[in-house]
UniProtKB/TrEMBL annotation:
One of its GO terms (cellular component) is cytosol. One of its GO terms (molecular function) is small GTPase binding. This is F-box domain-containing protein. It holds the Pfam family LRR_6. It comes from the Eukaryota. Keywords: GTPase activation, Leucine-rich repeat, Repeat. SMART domains: LRR_RI (SM00368). One of its GO terms (biological process) is nucleocytoplasmic transport. It comes from Saprolegnia diclina (strain VS20).
Length: 531
């Protein structure tokens, strides 16, 4: 049957595949005659990746190399073999963008359609302008932090940025943080400039500068540009402009994703029903009454797919039952994140009724305990869509961890588990080790895991090369166990992600030196100090 496929049809099939491992497996087993030139080149890259020939390009802790579906190369200049450069040249037509952090040109010719994404935050003006000079006509994503501290930005640099930003023709997404400085006038100039951009459709903004003039330009931008995502981070600096800003946001008919971290903005926004076109909503609220207002605003929303509600720690605990009872009315809800909202028994019962339709559930400081976890695990066998479960700071002990581990077998779609900030000890952690081949992400940060569990983990680490994240940091697992884990990774030439561990400050330097001498790619183990 495979002989009936044409290379063009195979390439079309691959373009609809979302998992990197699946694409690699397919390309490595198909006959060469069935592969188009770009796919044959991609197969060459996968072979080089698995043989450890791309190690130099992965040397960054916060950015993982990926060949599919996005092309992510933290440091492309490290790729210098002609056969790999030719392969990247041939495979480039498969990608819409290249994600990197490098300030150097790549060694191959990029096709005209390919854009450059720089998601790592640039905090120094010289780094910002060097990358803009290199990629000005290709930049589609940029992350900038403006600060006068340490002399990273001068007034002239901020003024220059205001002139440069509107000239980037393909800049689609910008993360801009410009809080905590004295360049008020210059920052206002930057904000007005970026709100004149016709290509910018996704903005994450943190600022302590605002004015009526800026608000007017902001409103025009939301009206005349098809903005799809807006995140206003941190406190909003001008309370008298809250309602004007909310009015401008509501007037934007293309907005699909909205995050408001200022409580006054959030209260004003949920004072009326949510716009029908909104698909994702992230709110930080500071009083119980806003939970009720959010419930009324969101109920029966036809398109809401993701909801995140964070309650201020200083607020009195609200009655969350109305909010949870309204969730079944959100027919398209797939991702739910509740923080600092206590879930009593009746509220939990209502929440579990919507769990089978979710793809992601994140609960933080909800006081679930082991009893609440037992209720979740009873529902997990019916959760065919759920692929991410995060239960953070819930007071979960070994008992709850064992229950979750047992239930993972009955919920094969669940590949991302986050149990950060709990009370899980070695027995609970060890229960997850046989399941690691089926997990992509496991976070056990800040628990009570000891040396026994870490030693047992070192025996199965060779089965975890596919994992994007295995986080054991801020657990006192001991120097011998960490050395055993590093030694177990010695033979592995490729890892999809990072193993995170922590050691005491007195052992830190020695262990970093040991990893540097032992591992071909020492950045695949992220060692931090334990305090």
């Amino acid at each position: 049957m495979a002989a009936d496929l044409s290379p063009d049809l195979v390439q079309l099939i691959v373009m609809y595949m979302a998992d990197e491992a699946d694409v690699a497996s397919l390309l490595l087993v198909l006959p060469p005659a069935l592969l188009s030139a770009p796919l044959a080149a991609l197969r060459t890259l996968f072979r080089a990746l698995f043989d450890g020939e791309l190690v130099g390009a992965t040397r960054h802790r916060s950015m993982h190399l990926s060949l599919w579906p996005p092309l992510v190369l933290p440091y492309p200049p490290a790729i210098n073999k002609p056969i790999l450069i030719d392969a990247l040249q041939a495979a480039s037509s498969l990608y819409a963008s290249l994600t990197t952090r490098s300030s150097s040109r790549v060694r191959w010719d990029l096709p005209p359609h390919l854009t450059i994404e720089l998601p790592c935050r640039l905090a120094q003006a010289r780094h910002v302008f060097s990358r803009i000079a290199l990629w000005d006509t290709r930049l589609s994503l940029l992350s900038i932090q403006i600060s006068a501290l340490r002399g990273d930005w001068a007034r002239s640099d901020v003024e220059k940025l205001a002139l440069v930003l509107p000239t980037l023709p393909r800049l689609r997404s910008l993360h801009l943080c410009c809080a905590g400085h004295n360049y008020t006038f210059e920052i206002g100039f930057v904000l007005k400039a970026l709100f004149t951009s016709r290509s910018l459709t996704q903005l994450s903004l943190t600022t302590n500068v605002w004015s009526e003039d800026i608000g007017c330009v902001f409103a025009k931008w939301l009206t005349h540009v098809p903005v799809s995502s807006l995140k206003l981070r941190g406190p909003f600096p001008m309370k008298s402009q809250v309602h004007a800003v909310v009015h401008a946001i509501r007037a934007c008919r293309t907005l699909q994703s909205l995050a408001l971290e200022d409580a006054a903005l959030a209260r004003a926004f949920v004072a009326a029903p949510l716009p029908a076109h909104l698909c994702e909503l992230d709110l930080r609220i500071d009083r119980p009454t806003t939970v009720d207002e959010t419930t009324r605003a969101a109920a029966y929303h036809p398109h809401l797919e993701a909801l995140r509600v964070r309650l201020s720690r200083a607020s009195l605990p609200p009655d969350n039952l109305p909010l949870v009872l309204s969730l079944p009315t959100l027919r398209r809800l797939r991702r739910l994140d509740l923080i600092h909202l206590e879930l009593v028994t009746m509220t939990r019962d209502a929440l579990w009724t919507v769990l089978p339709r979710l793809t992601e559930l994140r609960l933080e400081k909800s006081h679930l305990g082991d009893s609440g976890v037992a209720e979740i695990t009873a529902v997990l066998p019916t959760c065919y869509r759920l692929h991410r479960l995060a239960l953070v700071d819930q007071g979960i002990s070994d008992t709850g961890a064992l229950a979750i581990a047992r239930s993972l077998v009955l919920c094969p779609s669940l590949t991302d588990v986050d149990l950060t900030d709990n009370a899980i000890a070695s027995d609970g952690a060890i229960a997850f080790w046989p399941l690691l081949p089926n997990l992509i992400v496991l976070r056990l940060r800040r628990n009570r895991i000891g040396e026994d569990a870490a030693m047992a983990l070192s025996d199965v680490l060779r089965l975890t090369a596919h994992m994007r994240c295995l986080d054991m940091s801020d657990n006192n697992i001991g120097l011998p166990a960490v050395r055993a884990m590093i030694t177990a990774l010695h033979d592995g030439s490729y890892r999809a992600g990072v193993v995170n561990v922590s050691v005491t400050p007195s052992d830190y330097e020695a262990l970093c030196s040991f990893a540097l001498g032992c591992l071909r790619d020492p950045h695949r183990v992220d060692i931090t100090r334990l305090y």
